[in-house]
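A protein record pairs a chain with a discrete description of its three-dimensional fold. The shape at a given residue is found from the number at the same position. Here is what such a record looks like in full:
>
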Amino acid sequence: MRLVSLLPGATEMLAALGALDELVGVSHECDEPPEVRTLPRVTATPINPTRSSAEIHAAVQQAVAEGRQAIGIEADALLALRPDVIVTQMLCDVCAVADGEAIRLARVMDPPPRVVALDGRTLGGVWDDIARLATAIGREVEGKQLADSLRAEVAALAERYHHTVPLRVVAVEWLEPLFLAGHWVPEMIAAAGGVDVGASAGSHSTVRDWAEVMALQPDVVLVILCGFDEARAREELEAMPEGPARAWLATQRVVVLDGNAYTSRPGPRLVEGIRKIVEVLVNSDE
């Protein structure tokens, strides 16, 4: 079977399912596990990822306003790979190729590949996506085993780190404009022994005002910028302009994690992300 993944989380799912040898193409953002970094890239973006948070957001908004995708499929590259299965998503219009473009291209292929569109918004939804993807590539047993294992790991962490009075956490997913993380992040925080006071499980990441966030009176401000590693997130924090938000953050317990690796991508490493948050909350509670 020839597999193409159009998003990093799906690539990590396929690797965990033991299907690396069947991957023939990936998105330009796929970098884990390291073996996929030499595979053909079938997506591209006109947006410069080295620009500031505000500039990236403005570029995405402009693309949407003009009817363009922030990330598009390189049609010729995809067609040349002759995939049997294309894995895409229905969750986010910014972070990955929309499922509609993949479906349109699949229709002109002979034979047409199967398009699997992942849509998990919660941890349970992500584990269900893993099982569904596994079935689509003929690895149903492996998928059930992996999904069950991940569920069990999260349940064990939640039981071990349960607190009667959990620390109050806000999870910042983007700085300019300010977005608080939604989807599975509140569940990750809960499993680590905290409570997300800025969002609920399964909700969309939403734009908030700094004054609203200050009023939540968090014990911990968790900075997990979407698509950015820890070093890049720290750069964004340091570049914040002087003002009430920066002054308030200077008085808070602010912890920066690699959002790109541990919280943004729906896949097996979300469990590792929970462990990272556990370390944050344990240290903050001492």
